């Protein structure tokens, strides 16, 4: 950890290596969790450090984590998710996201977006999916993001929510924003509250951006 902070000028390179390590196909549960914990440790210590360039870790990882977590999610969901050990690993990842939220390292909804990428696959909108979107409040949120007038703001909104990096096309950002709304609309109420997202019928804590 001291080495990482002492070499903060190399934060972009080290951050890319860390993020890339989450995308390997043949991870063991222990290895995957160890890498998440290492990233968390670097984020925490760089936030506390007064060394020049330490904030580069946060800014670089903020750009890289959405893509890394989406790939890590494929691994996390595919490792026997019914097993007790898998349930514990998912709980451990959520605890890390909660720590990032408590530390205020990223924008408020950023960890919630990472959680949506980790624990649910993004799929294209279909007629079958539309049948499951009957709740009026959910329909209103989806319509907001699918409105062509909202499209110019979609990339910024997706980045604030931990759903995209700065190069993702508008259409992909809209798809991820709709994924975010569906994921949290159907989530456990206690989990929604922990993530800073209001339950259906209570309004939205976050802005439209």
From TrEMBL:
It comes from the Eukaryota. InterPro entries: CID_dom (IPR006569), ENTH_VHS (IPR008942). Gene3D superfamilies: 1.25.40.90. Residues 1-122 form the CID domain. This is CID domain-containing protein. It comes from Symbiodinium necroappetens.
């Amino acid at each position: 950890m001291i080495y990482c902070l002492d070499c903060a000028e190399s934060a972009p390179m080290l951050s890319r290596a860390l993020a890339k390590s989450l995308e390997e196909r043949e991870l063991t549960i222990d290895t995957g969790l160890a890498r998440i914990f290492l990233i968390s440790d670097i984020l925490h210590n760089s936030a506390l450090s007064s060394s020049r360039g330490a904030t580069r870790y946060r800014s670089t990882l903020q750009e890289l984590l959405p893509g890394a977590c989406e790939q890590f999610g494929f691994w996390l969901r595919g490792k026997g998710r019914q097993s007790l050990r898998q349930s514990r690993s998912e709980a451990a990842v959520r605890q890390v996201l909660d720590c990032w939220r408590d530390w205020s390292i990223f924008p408020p909804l950023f960890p919630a977006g990472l959680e949506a990428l980790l624990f649910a696959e993004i799929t294209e909108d279909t007629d079958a999916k539309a049948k499951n979107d009957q709740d009026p409040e959910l329909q209103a949120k989806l319509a907001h993001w699918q409105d062509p007038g909202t499209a110019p703001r979609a990339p910024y909104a997706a980045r604030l929510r931990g759903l995209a990096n700065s190069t993702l096309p508008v259409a992909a950002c809209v798809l991820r924003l709709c994924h975010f709304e569906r994921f949290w609309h159907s989530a456990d109420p206690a989990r929604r509250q922990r993530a800073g997202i209001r339950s259906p019928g209570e309004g939205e804590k976050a802005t439209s951006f």
